[in-house]
């Protein structure tokens, strides 16, 4: 592999100093893509199956839009989950926190302040729950699994209490929220753009900022990170707050798509988000992973759901298929990890 | 040729090579039934390897092992156990969540159809513990709730639960309080009286005098003395046997001659440690380090030397005392402040404490100085890469490719990577045409104090010399260096001034040039007296 790369850089001998490293980034990028080839291939295969089994329904613009809209809610959550998992943690509370944010934002009291305050409310509730998770984990030394499991249960309960277990409808004057899913730009609803923006910003933060680097360091070897002068606790806190923020944004999307706030929203989203991250090649032990992989993993999942619905198949079979895919993906990655070294 | 007069165990010409190191270079050892045989040697002399060969964990490359006069092959730990050889390692290998009895019989449970016979096991355990004089330890207690001494007794009971003829104890007293050591010795004497042989490893000469019958001294993978009488051999003789190296390291010259380097110039005091105490680990440690000076801390593993470094750095929080950097106190217990104020630490355990093993050399080098390459969190990767590449060249890290995963590098190059972490600068340096030595210097005022904990552990001889030269060069550029090492010659050869540490106390301070290796060894090993 040395020969082609040295040819690549031959014309730029002046800057030899930083060439090797830039090359290394390209290498890593390529490696990343190589790792993602499997996922892209899976997407293509699924698309082919879709076209073959449902020639009239699958490749329609309305179906593509519905796949993307479906993906955008969990997609935003997946971005946050990727950060947490690369940072060596886990956040089980995402679905429940999103539900709580949707309920809090759609109470009559909040709704009376208009759509902007509702959106802000959802974001604050999500971030606040994330901060509580982070404080418990980083400073209270709770195991992430336990702290976020407790948050899952408690946030769901609080959402039920606030809503009296009723589905809260968007008031007509707050149509602006709903318009996020009904207004289309370039044929796509705005929520898809929200997802795209969150994913893009997430990618930049993860790959181009000190915050992203520290996330890898903290997840890969917390002791080494601490001894290198990184404030590991504060960083851990921020990671969970970030995950909560993503849940808040996801709550806005789910309100837009369903025109409701409900304590039942986002049931088992945590499993879908974690599964997407893992399929995407992120190590559950932390320190390694990519956001692109997570999003591809999520699209694979969403497309499977879509295919099963279009073909009128049982949702139970869909769950079985997802389980099988998780196992296969992880087995393939393990082989991939071994071979380079 | 089974011979009734043959010793219990005889090892002849044991050789064990690891890549780049000959850990055992023809070791002989002879242990008789019912004796306490002490094994002495400096770090790296080959004690651990020898134990591992004896317990079946390592296979020797050549040499013979004779058991009761007959040649045997210790192919694996089970084979050794079957002969009656039991090993109690430093880190006791007990399962905290199981009971005392379950631990004792782990792996050979008294069971019927897979159901363990608890009552039976508990009874047998109680009997064993009673034999060890510890009938008070309840067999049903969870091991995790026992104190260190209790765990040791359980380990011993486990060793005795087989039909054991030889017990190997690797620094058993290191984790014990004084009265617990007495009890340990009582047990050892009883075992010896019952005909069990004990191989006892310790750095504390006083203990060896008290409990040992004979002593074998290892140095550089050879037995330099076999079967000396433990009670009557002079300390000076033992120390002389342990010191002096067949492999001489080359140390760089000190600035302004060997003598009085610290007092030579008006160098500013950079770091002052006053009355630093970490309860239970070290007490009232005070010293100062000047710019350009290398201060060595000599002491045994467990003497508190690493903890002193980590506490200064803020990785542990002192229970008393202060650390002043440039005359201003350092906030305790916060490594990020220490780093920002110009401290760097190369910790003892390179892999678990220093390196991000999954990441590239480049990421490992820049991890501590990212904020210098960032504006509002946004990394200027071009600048980062330029600096990293310059350091890789300056320190001659090989292969000279910052994209390599750091785990593929040799120990010496990994250590250089850790050092480079503290040397990368925020300033743009030479655009690629710099000579090899030019960018070694961090920008003035960036790195002030470098704390090095065992910087040459696991590093081969050639790379050692390079590291020594590098450390001296850094000091010559005005950095104050604090050096911890278990290898006395290394401390004496590299440092300007030396603090000798024993059991958490600074017991001596002197210029390195005025100290002899044997004196230092004598000080750090003699007596557990306190």
Describe this structure in words.
Chain A is mostly helical and 341 residues long. Chain A has 15 helices and four strands. The longest helix of chain A is centred in the first third of the chain and has 35 residues, at 19-53. Chain B has three domains: 9-242, 3-Layer(aba) Sandwich (Rossmann fold); 249-342 and 448-530, 3-Layer(aba) Sandwich (Rossmann fold), CATH 3.40.50.300; 359-446, no CATH class. Chain B is built from 17 helices and 24 strands. In chain B, the strands form six sheets. In chain B, strands 6-9-10-3-11-12 form a six-stranded mixed beta sheet, with helices on both faces. In chain B, strands 18-21-22-15-23-24 form a six-stranded mixed beta sheet, sandwiched between helices. Chain B has a four-stranded antiparallel beta sheet with strand order 2-1-4-5, covered by helices on one side. In chain B, helix 6 links the parallel strand 9 (166-170) and strand 10 (197-201). Residues 257-264 and 426-439 of chain B have low confidence and may be disordered.
Key traits:
heterodimer; A: 341 residues; mainly alpha; two-stranded antiparallel ribbon; two-stranded antiparallel sheet; 15 helices; 4 strands; 75% helix; disordered N terminus; B: 530 residues; alpha/beta; Rossmann fold; six-stranded mixed β-sheet; 24 strands
Number of helices of chain A: 15
Largest interface: A-B, 35 and 48 residues
What is the CATH topology classification name of the largest domain in chain B?
Answer: Rossmann fold
As laid out across the biggest beta sheet of chain A, the strand order is: 1-4
Oligomer: heterodimer
The helix/strand series of chain A, from N terminus to C terminus, equals HHHHHHHEHEEHHHHEHHH
Task: Supply the number of structural domains of chain B.
Answer: 3
Give the beta-strand count of chain B: 24
Radius of gyration of chain A: 21 Å
Q: Into which percentage range does the β-strand content of chain B fall?
A: 15-25%
What structural category do the secondary elements of chain A indicate? mainly alpha
Please give the largest β-sheet of chain B: 6 strands, mixed
Largest sheet composition of chain A: 2 strands, antiparallel
């Amino acid at each position: 592999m040395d020969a082609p790369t040295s040819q690549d850089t031959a014309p730029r001998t002046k800057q030899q100093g930083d060439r090797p490293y830039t090359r290394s980034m390209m290498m890593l990028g390529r490696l990343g893509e190589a790792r993602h080839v499997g996922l892209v291939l899976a997407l293509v295969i699924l698309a082919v199956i879709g076209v073959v089994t449902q020639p009239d329904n699958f490749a329609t613009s309305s179906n593509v839009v519905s796949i993307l809209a479906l993906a955008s809610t969990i997609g935003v959550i997946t971005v946050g989950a990727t950060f947490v998992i690369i940072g060596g943690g886990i956040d089980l509370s995402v679905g429940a926190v999103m539900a709580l944010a949707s309920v809090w934002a759609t109470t009559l009291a909040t709704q009376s302040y208009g759509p902007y305050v509702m959106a802000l409310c959802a974001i604050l509730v999500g971030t606040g729950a994330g901060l509580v998770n982070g404080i418990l984990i980083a400073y209270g030394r709770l195991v992430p699994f336990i702290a976020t499991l407790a948050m899952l249960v408690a946030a769901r309960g609080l959402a039920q209490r606030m809503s009296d277990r009723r589905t809260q409808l968007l008031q007509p004057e707050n149509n602006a929220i709903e318009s996020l899913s009904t207004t289309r730009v370039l044929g796509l609803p705005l929520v898809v753009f929200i997802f795209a923006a969150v994913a893009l910003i997430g990618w930049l933060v993860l790959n181009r900022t000190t915050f992203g680097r520290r996330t890898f360091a903290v997840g890969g070897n917390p002791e080494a990170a601490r001894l290198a002068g990184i404030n590991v606790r504060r960083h851990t806190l921020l990671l969970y707050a970030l995950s909560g923020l993503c849940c808040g944004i996801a709550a806005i999307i789910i309100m837009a798509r369903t025109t409701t706030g409900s304590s039942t929203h986002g049931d088992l989203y945590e499993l879908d988000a974690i599964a997407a991250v893992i399929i995407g090649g992120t190590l559950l032990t932390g320190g390694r992973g990519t956001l692109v992989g997570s999003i591809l993993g999520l699209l694979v999942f969403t497309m499977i759901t879509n295919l099963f619905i279009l073909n009128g198949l049982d949702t139970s079979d869909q769950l079985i298929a997802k389980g099988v895919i998780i196992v296969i993906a992880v087995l393939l990655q393990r082989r991939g990890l071994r071979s380079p070294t | 040729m089974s011979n009734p007069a043959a010793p219990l165990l005889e090892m002849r010409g044991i050789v064990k090579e690891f890549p780049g190191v000959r850990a055992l270079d023809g070791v002989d050892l002879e242990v008789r039934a019912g004796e306490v045989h002490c094994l002495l040697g400096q770090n790296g002399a080959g004690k651990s390897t020898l134990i591992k060969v004896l317990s079946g964990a390592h296979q020797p490359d050549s040499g013979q092992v004779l058991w009761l006069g007959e040649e045997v092959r210790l192919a694996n730990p089970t084979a050794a156990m079957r002969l009656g050889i039991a090993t109690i390692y430093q880190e006791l290998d007990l399962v905290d969540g199981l009971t005392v009895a379950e631990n004792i019989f782990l792996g050979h449970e008294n069971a019927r159809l897979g159901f363990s016979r608890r009552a039976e096991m508990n009874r047998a355990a109680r009997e064993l513990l009673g034999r060890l004089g510890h009938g008070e330890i309840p067999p049903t207690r969870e091991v995790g709730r026992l104190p260190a001494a209790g765990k040791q007794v359980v380990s011993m009971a486990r060793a005795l639960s087989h039909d054991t003829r030889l017990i190997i104890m690797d620094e058993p007293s290191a984790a014990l309080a004084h009265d617990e050591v007495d009890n340990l010795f009582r047990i050892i004497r009883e075992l010896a009286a019952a005909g069990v042989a004990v191989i006892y490893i310790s750095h504390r000469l006083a203990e060896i005098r008290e409990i040992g019958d004979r002593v074998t001294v290892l140095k550089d993978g050879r037995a330099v003395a076999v079967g000396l009488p433990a009670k009557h051999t002079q300390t000076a003789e033992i120390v002389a046997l342990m010191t002096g190296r067949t492999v001489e390291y080359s140390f760089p010259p000190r600035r302004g001659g060997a003598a009085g380097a610290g007092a030579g110039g008006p160098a500013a005091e950079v770091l002052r440690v006053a009355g630093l105490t970490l309860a239970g680990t070290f007490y009232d440690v005070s010293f100062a380090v000047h710019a350009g000076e290398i201060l060595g801390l000599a002491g045994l593993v467990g003497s508190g030397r690493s903890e002193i470094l980590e506490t200064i750095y803020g990785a542990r929080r002192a229970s008393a005392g202060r650390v002043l950097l440039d005359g201003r106190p350092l906030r305790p217990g916060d490594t990020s402040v220490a780093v920002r104020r110009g401290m760097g630490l190369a910790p003892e355990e390179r892999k678990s404490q220093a390196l991000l093993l999954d990441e590239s050399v480049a990421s490992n080098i820049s991890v501590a100085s990212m904020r210098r390459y960032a504006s509002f969190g946004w990394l200027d990767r071009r600048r980062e890469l330029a600096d990293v590449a310059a350091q890789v060249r300056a320190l001659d890290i090989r292969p000279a490719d910052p994209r390599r995963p750091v785990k593929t590098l040799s120990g010496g190059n990994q250590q250089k990577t850790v050092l480079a972490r503290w040397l990368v600068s925020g300033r743009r340096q030479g655009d690629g045409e710099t000579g090899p030595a030019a960018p070694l210097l961090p920008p003035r005022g960036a790195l002030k104090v470098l704390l090095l904990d065992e910087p040459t552990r696991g590093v081969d001889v050639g790379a050692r010399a390079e590291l020594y030269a590098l450390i001296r060069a850094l000091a010559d550029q005005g950095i104050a260096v604090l050096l911890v090492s278990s290898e006395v010659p290394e401390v004496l050869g590299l440092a300007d001034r030396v603090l000798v540490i024993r059991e958490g106390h600074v017991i001596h301070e002197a210029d390195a040039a005025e100290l002899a290796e044997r004196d230092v060894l004598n000080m750090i090993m003699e007596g557990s007296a306190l």
